[in-house]
């Protein structure tokens, strides 16, 4: 359950000690632009984006969140509208008790919308995330992340070219439910086709800092490996690989296919792609079969980077293949 005494409450407005971005090669931006959709998307306000996502996900429900005011007791609407006004000015202190009971309500999404999350301050968003993550089920948390938290984070990065420290801490708190975080934040961000390097660097640093169970990381890697490629995907793959988990062979195999499919791609690949391939072979070279090693060596003859590719070749050629290790272990038994 939610703990009022959480030490994260002590973050001040000027405290950026937790904030961090991963370093990215600036020359990658022009290359990565070639992997983004050609048609620029119309710039929308945060409120527009949240309303559209809520309407889309609730179109098949008899009671739409967008029209929630018509189906809820007017006194309740008044209370939570006032709560929303408080959250739009919130800087510190305890959240209203009316907000803390939201996770226990059957129509929690409708009630939450009455507080107008698009207007919450970053401080309020962090505190709200703590309450909701601690008390909602994973599926419900996923919806909150996707509908509200992700868009608030992206909007803040667009406006300020960095992320407010309270929103950064909200992302860290969201990772307490890793499956919901990946399904509600990471995958939608990658699949949007508009994830920027700045967004990837910030969210990647959150993933790097927080301990994530191996099974969740493995599932995330498998999903990323099978997605349509965008440059930031390479950064997230690299970050998860850097956690050095013992991955199932199914995930290793999927990552091999992820890389070798670029053999026929005529576009110049970003440094991020080469870096993620290097980290992959460094961490999992002994999990590769002889055929996979040969395929990767053929790949880097076509897709090469003058500094990184020699290291990739060295890692592959100076390792024992998976099948050979298994044969040796069988002989010893």
From TrEMBL:
GO molecular function, one term: snoRNA binding
Domain of life of the native organism: Eukaryota
Keyword set includes Transcription: no
Pfam family, one: Bystin
GO biological process, one term: rRNA processing
UniProt entry tagged with the keyword Secreted: no
Record keywords: Nucleus, Ribosome biogenesis
GO annotation, cellular component aspect: cytoplasm; nucleolus; preribosome, small subunit precursor
Compartments reported by the entry: Nucleus, Nucleolus
Spans annotated as Disordered: 1-21
Family, similarity comment: Belongs to the bystin family.
Protein name according to UniProt: Bystin
